UniProtKB/TrEMBL annotation:
Cited Pfam families: KAP_NTPase
Coiled-coil annotated spans: none
Annotated KAP NTPase domain residues: 10-306
Protein name: KAP NTPase domain-containing protein
Membrane-spanning ranges: none
Length: 442
């Protein structure tokens, strides 16, 4: 299995989360809380790293695992109409996997007990036909009083099953701390997502030494609540019934480790360090999340591979990174939900230092515009007159200067940047292929 790379510097957040879970475990507390962050902020990475750290922790008194760690992927198990069935199924599957990988006899015995308890729970669901399609089929055939009686019997059986499940889960939590990690709630349909929240509450709320950690996007979750219960509902009050507290996960700051993660792309250039360092700054200014950054680099890699043969200079890398980051940022809606109409060819980008386009700062932000202006100003060295009312600006003989020269020659309506052909490392006509393929594949 390939090792994951922490490109957003989540180490401190994960350390804090790890200490929090250990403290709750020591105090035998039962809590349901969330890691709250927008889609693409790396919530899954944080949860996976937490699981990896918790799994081998050994209780110093018993030499057994300190935690029962379970992973419940809501979206992966959403083929179960009843979420409680999905939750128990995921826990049972994890108990079997953990048992297979335990060598320590004490730890093995602990997971054997967990498997037996969860198997008992699963048996109760089967016995009472909870979540089994045959129940729905039978229900549809009943009418009148018999139908009402069947509905009552079904709900009574379900409540009884939930109560018995909680008692069995308490037995597990008396052996060691139970940790349930809930991921991909964002990907579920609103009705199912709300039902998952309710079932997690029914199954685990108030059980000592039981910790449920959910990855959520609070804005999306609030929208789901409103869709189910209407806009008048107090979403904050409703969600507080299910979630004790939120840990906010920001967009993160891109770290130098990303060069290692995206080496499949960077290795196609003769040099990369200076341009990669600039990307770190630009990506942070653009507040691009890790999932969209992954997609962006993958797109650039495909387009570059089609356009160029052999290794290219660092100026091409910096040109592609600037083009790609701004293309991504400018394609997003502004605060009013409107889209800019200048995103197709980015003809204004080479003129960023002196041209004014209405509303542009709503998309790029003042910081991004100032950064681009600064990089272009650094690239320009002197001006030469080539006609009565026409001038060309000489650019510096480095990767930044040549990258702006490429942008100007490929995108600008009026080309104004000049570079001594002796110092050029790339053929502009060759770079045109990148833009041609980008128009098709972006």
């Amino acid at each position: 299995m390939q090792e994951t790379v922490d490109v957003l510097n989540r180490e401190q957040f994960i350390d804090m989360l790890y200490q929090l879970v250990n403290t709750m475990s020591d105090l035998k507390q039962g809590k349901i809380f969330s890691i709250d962050g927008t889609w693409g902020y790396g919530k899954t990475y944080v949860l996976e790293e937490l699981e990896r750290r918790l799994s081998p922790v050994v209780n110093e008194d018993t030499y057994d695992d300190k935690f029962y760690v379970f992973h419940y992927n809501c979206w992966q198990y959403d083929y179960y109409e009843e979420p409680s069935v999905a939750i128990i199924s995921a826990m049972l599957e994890d108990s079997e996997n953990s048992l297979e990988h335990r060598i320590n006899k004490v730890a093995k015995a602990g997971w054997e007990t967990a498997k037996e308890i969860l198997a008992e729970v699963a048996g109760e669901y089967v016995k009472n036909k909870i979540g089994v399609n045959i129940v729905e089929t039978f229900q549809s055939e009943k009418t009148g009083i018999d139908n009402q009686k069947f509905k009552f019997d079904k709900m009574f059986a379900f409540k009884k099953t939930l109560d018995e499940t909680r008692e069995k889960l308490k037995r597990m939590s008396e052996i060691k701390t139970v940790v349930i990690v809930v991921d991909e709630l964002d990907r579920c349909m609103p009705e199912y997502a709300i039902k998952v929240l309710e079932r997690l509450h029914h199954l685990f709320e108030g059980i000592p030494n039981t910790i449920v950690i959910m990855a959520v996007d609070s804005k999306q979750l609030e929208n789901s609540v409103k869709k189910i219960f209407g806009n008048a509902v107090d979403t904050g009050r409703y969600l507080r019934k299910f979630i004790s507290f939120n840990l906010k996960l920001g967009v993160g700051a891109l770290q130098s480790k990303y060069v290692e993660k995206y080496n499949y792309y960077f290795e196609k250039f003769e040099e990369k360090d200076a341009a990669a360092e600039e990307l770190q700054t630009l990506a942070t200014l653009c507040q691009i999340d890790i999932r969209n950054l992954n997609k962006l680099i993958e797109k650039l890699d495909i387009i570059h591979t089609l356009a160029f043969k052999g290794k290219m200079s660092e100026s091409v890398l910096w040109f592609e990174l600037m083009w790609g980051m701004i293309k991504y940022k400018i394609s997003l809606p502004d605060k009013e939900g409107k889209y800019i109409d200048r995103s197709d060819d980015l003809y204004w980008l080479p003129e960023i230092d002196h041209a004014t386009y209405g509303g542009l700062d709503n998309y790029l932000s003042k910081d991004i515009i100032e950064y681009l202006k600064e990089k272009k100003n650094i690239a320009m060295t002197n001006t030469r007159t080539i006609g009565m009312n026409s001038e060309e600006i000489m650019v510096s003989n480095d990767f930044n200067g040549e990258a702006w020269h490429i942008l100007d020659q490929l995108l600008a309506h009026k080309k104004t940047l000049y570079m001594d052909p002796v110092n050029q490392t790339v053929d502009i006509d060759e770079c045109k292929k990148f833009i041609e393929f980008a128009k098709i594949l972006w």
